[in-house]
Amino acid sequence: MVGVLSNRVDRQDVKAGDHIYSWRTAYIYAHHGIYVGDGMVIHFTRAAGHEIGTGTFLDSFLFSSSPVATTDGPPCQKCGHLMRREGVIMSCLNCFLDGGNLYLFDYAVSPAFFLAKARGGTCTLATSDPYDAVIHRARYLLDNGFGIYCLFKNNCEDFAIYCKTGLLVETAFSVGRSGQLASLTAAFSAVASSPLRFLTTSAGGLAIVTSGMYCVGRYVSDIGVRRDVVKVPVERLVEHNTLVASVAPPQATETDVTAVQGGGGSPS
């Protein structure tokens, strides 16, 4: 277990099957992956500039997760030939870190340790599976995919946590497994609870109540204590994703849209 103040580790301290991450853009967001040995990392990403799907500058400013080497400059000598632009990819540790520091995600922490880590997305109460199972899931998903990238439901942290635990969230309306999103949701919920101001007579008291709500929100959203999770074999997960993709409605083309809007004929 790493320290309460920082999860930063040296490269020689990580081993195959570890869940690692690196902070991006002034510590606003972290990118997660599974270290598989030989200086290589398997991680889940969306094409650079489209990480949250808004089509705006927020995609590249807030939530950039694609290694720079996939889009700019010459390909990496170690992993450039392995690179895909999006989805589950394998890259070398240098490209994964993209100039950032290396951090180790902690599993099976105590509730006290979990709550002491004020920033979400750094640890979980859930227990990790053996390293061989973790690596098997990561490599299987490298070959078969992890579905469609979605910041709120299916992001890089969700991928890494699934590889480590095999757990999926059953509830349709939830924020997935990501501790970062759970932390953000808890913060918004605490701030939005304006009626709390009537429960206290001082700013200090309100701060304590709000902080308490934030901690409770993070705790109950953690994959290690949620009741809406189920263990799913990676082969079954891929079968499910393949089935969903096969029955998904086709995307409307420009011709289809024109036909729906005003009749399909050409202008006379």
From TrEMBL:
InterPro entries: LRAT_dom. It holds the Pfam family LRAT. Gene3D superfamilies: endopeptidase domain like (from Nostoc punctiforme) (3.90.1720.10). Residues 21-172 form the LRAT domain. It comes from the Eukaryota. This is LRAT domain-containing protein.
